[in-house]
Design a protein that fits this description.
By secondary structure, the protein is of the alpha/beta class. It has a domain at about 5-180: 2-enoyl-CoA Hydratase, Chain A, domain 1. About 45% of the residues lie in helices and about 15% in strands. Strands 1-2-3-5-7-10 form a six-stranded mixed sheet, with helices on both faces. A four-stranded mixed sheet has the order 4-6-8-9. The longest helix is centred in the first third of the chain and has 16 residues, at about 30-45. The protein binds (2S)-sulfonatepropionyl-CoA. (2S)-sulfonatepropionyl-CoA (YXS) binds near residues 25, 64 and 130.
Length: about 260
Amino acid sequence: MALVISEVREQIGTITFNNFAKRNALSRVFIDEILTALDDLLAKKTRVIILRAPEGAKVWSAGHDIKELENPGRDPLNYDDPLENLIRAVQRCPAPVIAMIEGGVWGGACELVLVCDILIGTHTASFAITPARIGVPYNSSGILHFMNTCSMATIKEMFFTAQPIKAERAERLGILNHLVEPEDLETFTYNMAKQISLNSPLSISVIKEQLHILGNALPLSTETFERIQALRRLAWDSEDYVEGKKAFLEKRPPVFRGR
Ligand code: YXS
């Protein structure tokens, strides 16, 4: 069964996640299908791309497929991780990508929607970043994506509590561009997509890439980068990461010992 449904209407592409059994957990196979759909839509000169879960979804995406996370002792969010490839593909996509959100957005999926260009959701949307629930370190490019959206205080609360931010607060915090009623979500989203599709695609793609370049323009010395990697190794080498992954697979709360 296809894990994504892709369609085009008046130069507006829609990729619908269709992996409910695993709550749209972003596995390698699922991500490959999303990337293929993205390429196909761009080949068809689509001017706007919408990422969505099926109407009325309780979960937009459960985040990284935990079963596919690297084993403890290795970087769980390394440059070549499939989810990292998807995040870069969305950032580099010349067409604006709109995240149309119903339901919970978990873990790495929370970063995925933050690198989308516009977020439109209903009151069922929520946003949780959860490395602390699993004992993994997040990666620097991912943390920078949060820093480009929210205040430091909000980011610390999200990462430290690993608890969902509900839609109303997400709108106040600038995570959601628009919070709309469920019955208005499609019309509102497609009207905005239509407005964008009538503007200059070249101008939009250049401005989008300028914002991507400037948003990532945070100079780091090599020593600082190496220090960050050493810090991250403390987590991905820890017993806590072993426990975090094991607890998820055993469907029980983790017991972290800080080592
Ligand atoms: O037991 P079966 O085979 O039916 O499969 C279950 C779950 O194991 C599976 N599933 C997942 N599989 C892999 N990776 C996941 N992230 C994941 N989430 C769910 O889907 C089947 C149905 O799950 P179930 O019964 O829990 O569904 P539910 O409707 O009761 O609850 C939906 C959720 C999303 C609230 C619940 O599944 C959940 O809390 N999932 C984990 C959310 C999460 O912590 N995601 C973070 C993944 S790690 C990540 O993204 C980054 C590395 S980080 O941690 O740094 O953010």
